[in-house]
Design goal:
The chain is mainly β. 11% of the residues lie in helices and 36% in strands. The termini are far apart.
Length: 174
């Protein structure tokens, strides 16, 4: 019989009381030792009592703790045109502006600096202009149907017509 496991009178296998408590104590001891002697991830150098002394790039030492630097609030977070700075732990990302925006300060059509072509400021958001509902005809051909698209529109031939040489002409019956 294995000394690690004991079989009780009902035939069920279980860990012996002595072994269970010693295993739990050993596991708890190892877990606490790992926590006591570990330096936080953002630190590059810690003192004996785990006080942070130096931080990784993108972090700043404040009261013996590494605090994330918000590069977006500094000159470090420079992003190209039509994108915005998004702070991450220890760094930043440049993310694309919403398609409704011509330049932005954050995510979504409510964070546009200016509306892109085909969009108009409605309330606090840049929203798509429905060119097909405008009073001016968007499609000039007689047999064309206007279809609104995000930021634009297209002219399609009406049913029974096809595009030929830039105009819609009636399909020929076979």
């Amino acid at each position: 019989m294995n000394s690690f496991f004991l079989v009780d009178l009902m035939g069920q296998m279980g860990v012996g009381t002595f072994h269970r408590s010693s295993l739990q104590a050993a596991w708890l001891c190892c877990l606490l030792a790992a926590q006591v002697h570990s330096c936080p991830d953002a630190c590059t150098k810690c003192s004996q009592n785990n006080q942070c002394e130096e931080c990784r790039a993108g972090w700043m030492l404040h009261n013996n703790t590494c605090v994330d630097v918000d590069e977006c609030d500094t000159e470090l977070g420079v992003c190209p045109a039509n994108s915005y700075c998004f702070n991450t732990d220890g760094s930043f990302q440049c993310r694309d502006c919403d398609s409704a925006c011509a330049g932005c300060m954050g995510s979504g059509p409510a964070r546009c600096r200016k509306c892109a072509s085909g969009y108009t400021l409605t309330g606090s958001k840049c929203l798509d202009i429905d060119e097909c509902s405008d009073r001016v005809l968007a499609c000039h051909g007689l047999d064309e149907i206007c279809t609104n698209t995000e930021g634009s529109f297209r002219c399609d031939c009406a049913e029974g017509f096809i595009h030929k040489d830039g105009v819609c002409v009636k399909k020929q019956q076979p």
